[in-house]
Design a protein that fits this description.
With 215 residues, the chain is mostly beta strands. 6% of the residues lie in helices and 41% in strands. The longest helix has 13 residues.
């Protein structure tokens, strides 16, 4: 779940989801990183890893996570996602988490809903082939309407998936803790509620002290 960058959390039927060409970049150092299969934990489920750092998930769901965690401030994550075979109402997603221990898979899993919880940045969560949401969770406190601290309910922005169901996703992380996600080059940062400066500071401090694991 967080560490190297991503864990895939999904429940699906049939041949589900394919993610490919995963790349991590830090513009300040001009460093690009594309994880190999040896860099990933196969947490559970019907998962097939590919040579380009991606994976496919089949019937019954599954999850992949990175063994390493990354300070993504000033950098970005990019990948191609294929949901063309995903059934209606099935949740496919890509997110980061920030466990306080080394990520070894399911036994060290952490997210914002657990007690104690950890920062969870849901880069993209899809509803079948229809819509998606990006949701930031920085404070492990119970949800409150309009809470700009991005609690367990989170600060969310959403939209519709491209019609061809195969699309490029980019998540950019500013040095000040902003998280901006674009689909096929179209940015969607209409968060509601909009993340507060306190929430952004949690992103900064967590990235600097723990990093983020890919789920």
């Amino acid at each position: 779940r967080s560490s190297s960058f991503y864990q895939l959390r999904s429940r699906m039927k049939a041949i589900l989801l394919s993610l490919s060409a995963l790349t991590l970049a830090n513009p300040s150092s001009a460093t690009l990183y594309c994880p190999a299969s040896k860099d990933l934990n196969l947490d559970y489920g019907a998962v097939s890893l590919s040579d380009d750092g991606g994976w496919s998930i089949g019937s019954g769901g599954g999850r992949v996570s990175s063994k390493a965690s990354f300070n993504l401030l000033g950098g970005m994550i990019s990948f191609t996602m294929d949901v063309s075979n995903v059934a209606d109402a099935v949740n496919t997603n890509f997110y980061t988490s920030s466990p306080s221990v080394a990520n070894t898979g399911s036994e060290s899993y952490c997210d914002i809903q657990l007690d104690p919880g950890c920062m969870e940045l849901d880069i993209i969560e899809n509803n079948g082939q229809c819509g998606y949401a990006t949701t930031l969770h920085t404070f492990p406190t119970d949800g409150k309407e309009g809470c700009t601290a991005c609690d367990r309910w989170g600060c969310m922005t959403s939209g519709f998936l491209p019609s061809n169901k195969i699309f490029d996703v980019k998540a950019e992380f500013s040095d000040s803790g902003d998280v901006i996600v674009s689909i096929n080059g179209n940015t969607n940062s209409n968060y509601s509620p909009y993340p507060s400066s306190d929430s952004n500071q949690v992103v900064v401090k967590t990235m600097e002290s723990i990093g983020a694991v890919i789920e």
